[in-house]
Amino acid sequence: MSSLTERKARLIVHGDQPYNAEPPLDRLRASYRTPAEDFYVRTHGDLPDLDEATWRLTVDGGTGPALEVSLSDLRTRFPVAMVTATMQCAGNRRADMRAVAPVSGDPWDAGAIGTAEWTGVRLGDVLREAGVAERVGLHVAFESHDTVDGHPYGASIPLAKAMAPETVLAYAMNGEALLPEHGFPVRAVVPGFAGVRSPKWLRRLTVQDHPSDNPIQAGDYKLYPADVTAETADPANGHTIDTMPLNAAICEPARGAILKPGSNRIRGYAVSGDRTVVRVDVSGNGGWSWVQAELERDVAAPFAWTFWSTSLDLPPGEHELAVRAWDEAGQTQPALPDETWNHKGYLCACWHRVRVNIA
């Protein structure tokens, strides 16, 4: 296995403490399942150094005593579950909103996203083993080993989502043990939800009648109107970000690329949190006219992205490429980041635009 230093060298690093990084966009189109070393990294605190032999997960809030399981228990006591799913940071494409007006957070391009085959056990199976019955109004609160501003990282999801068959406790990524920066030895994977709801380095799960009161859940990852500022934001009035919106991005060619006149291949991804992408439009003139792209998806993976590609005949000069996706409900993306700008820079889902020169 390569070292963390070597893996960092492959990525665009936005910060070392906490460590946050994304791949160059062309790497995302190299394969449908993103290699672990090219998968974006989002952390809020330290990188825990955990020993799989001594690691334990405690599950409480069921009808009986708390359940404690080891990694060996997960591997031997529960059916293996595998899900191919896309994970995406709520701040993906924040750089586009930052171009409108200042926002907080790392300036992610469109690379804070990746798709992997996650192997582990269904979270619902573990919860049922702990005596948890599905009931309306309950939540599963996660607590992790990493520390953020003096507190353990924590987040929560509705119990119904925790019990859904696609939600897993993963110990492997693309057939290999999780890398330390991706949550070794065990992390949650909650397909369709923002990455913040898929905590790494798990320590405890608690079933309770309210969302987690951890600052990450209660105070952060809220969507506010454009007129709300950091000073006036009230988390009680912000919309908690769970399901991710329809989005699309151009991965090739890169911004500022110099291309030859004539036919040029344009490739990228499209994704939607809980709906199927049914169409992707690509423009070579900033959205004045469009062509429909060819789509590539894994029909057995409804929570994974859709790859798209097309060819555009581009004459000499500067061109603004643009892409927009459509979902099965007939919804598409806003044209400009101005339309959904917010001071946290969350959920940027406007048309993705890339300027290129044809020489």
From TrEMBL:
Name of this chain's protein: Sulfite oxidase
Domain of life: Bacteria
InterPro entries (alphabetical): Ig_E-set, MoCF_OxRdtse_dimer, Mopterin_OxRdtase_euk, OxRdtase_Mopterin-bd_dom, OxRdtase_Mopterin-bd_sf
Sequence ranges assigned to domain Moybdenum cofactor oxidoreductase dimerisation in this UniProt record: 240-357
Molecular-function annotations in GO: heme binding; molybdenum ion binding; molybdopterin cofactor binding; sulfite oxidase activity
SUPFAM superfamilies registered for this protein in UniProt: E set domains, Oxidoreductase molybdopterin-binding domain
Protein keywords: Metal-binding, Molybdenum, Oxidoreductase
EC number: 1.8.3.1
Residues covered by the Oxidoreductase molybdopterin-binding domain: 44-215
Biological processes per GO annotation: sulfur compound metabolic process
Essential cofactor(s): Mo-molybdopterin
Top-tier EC class: oxidoreductase
Pfam families: Mo-co_dimer (PF03404), Oxidored_molyb (PF00174)
Coiled-coil residue windows: none
